[in-house]
């Protein structure tokens, strides 16, 4: 994401502040702020599938609790992400704050292409975040740093969420995103160290931008219960796709679960 430079970020922030209006948010605008479009706080349990290792064709599954909760427009938990808002405009369309989100590693034994490598450890990214909600959808921007010191890397993401169906019984969001990762982060998760290669030469992976698109939905069951689901296809950056451990340029993330609106 070459355009994510400090001057451009400053200009974008100023533009968002200027663009914030005083109108009340619609139901669709509130729905666009939620990865799981419940329209309210939500608690559930889901099963998800994603690549075993970076770029692997094989998937691993995990059962995880799903929490989507907001405290007085100040702090929130959304899936595996948590954050606080330091600034919220009067109409709640613009928020600026900090976020933290886990980044899963992998066991080298999970793929023949990573066999003999050291395991890549679980990490946490954290940094500033911005959300701008408009009548056509929500635009999210995050710039994260690996605060656990696994890769000492950085990543930035810009994401757009648009409500497609806003019916109370069945809600559907579409999303698109572009994610930039610097060379340090890509090398840690996608590269090989000198002691992990046959010729004792490291295989570093440069910075690059990946893209993703997907759907998330919620189907009401009874008064407060609901089925939720999501599917996303990720297009790896050229640098990631050309790494020694990648098996495919496209990787899926799929989840399904049940929960309750609070």
Give a written overview of the molecule.
- The chain is mainly beta.
- It has a single domain (6-261), classed as Porin (Beta Barrel), CATH 2.40.160.
- 12% of the residues lie in helices and 49% in strands.
- It contains four helices and twelve strands, in the order ααβββββββββαββαβ.
- It has helices at 6-19, 27-32, 183-190, 238-241; strands at 42-51, 59-71, 75-78, 81-88, 94-103, 123-134, 137-146, 154-166, 170-181, 208-221, 225-235, 250-261.
- The protein has a twelve-stranded antiparallel beta barrel.
- A hairpin with a 3-residue loop joins β10 and β11.
- The radius of gyration is 19 Å and the shape is globular.
- The two termini are 38 Å apart.
- The model is unreliable at 1-22 (pLDDT under 50).
């Amino acid at each position: 994401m070459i355009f994510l430079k400090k001057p451009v970020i400053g200009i974008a922030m100023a533009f968002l502040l200027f663009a914030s209006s005083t109108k009340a948010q619609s139901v669709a605008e509130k729905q666009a702020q939620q990865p799981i479009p419940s329209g309210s706080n939500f608690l559930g349990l889901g099963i998800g599938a994603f690549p075993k290792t970076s770029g692997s064709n094989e998937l691993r599954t995990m059962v995880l609790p799903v929490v989507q909760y907001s405290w007085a427009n100040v702090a929130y938990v959304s899936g595996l992400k948590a954050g606080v808002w330091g600034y919220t405009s009067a109409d709640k369309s613009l928020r600026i704050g900090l976020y933290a989100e886990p980044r899963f590693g992998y066991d080298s034994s999970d793929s023949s292409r990573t066999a003999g490598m050291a395991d890549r450890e679980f990490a946490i990214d954290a940094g500033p975040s911005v959300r701008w909600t408009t009548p056509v959808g929500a635009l999210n921007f995050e710039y994260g740093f690996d605060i656990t010191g696994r890769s000492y890397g950085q990543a930035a993401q810009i994401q757009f969420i648009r409500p497609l169906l806003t019916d109370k019984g069945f809600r559907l969001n579409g999303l698109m995103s572009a994610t930039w990762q610097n060379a340090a982060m890509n090398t840690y998760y996608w590269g090989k160290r000198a002691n992990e290669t046959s010729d004792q030469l490291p295989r570093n992976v440069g910075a690059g931008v990946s893209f993703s698109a997907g759907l998330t939905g919620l189907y009401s069951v009874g008064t407060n219960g609901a089925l939720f689901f999501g599917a996303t296809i990720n297009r790896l950056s050229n640098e990631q796709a050309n790494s020694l451990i990648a098996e495919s340029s496209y990787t899926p993330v799929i989840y399904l679960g049940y929960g309750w609106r609070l």
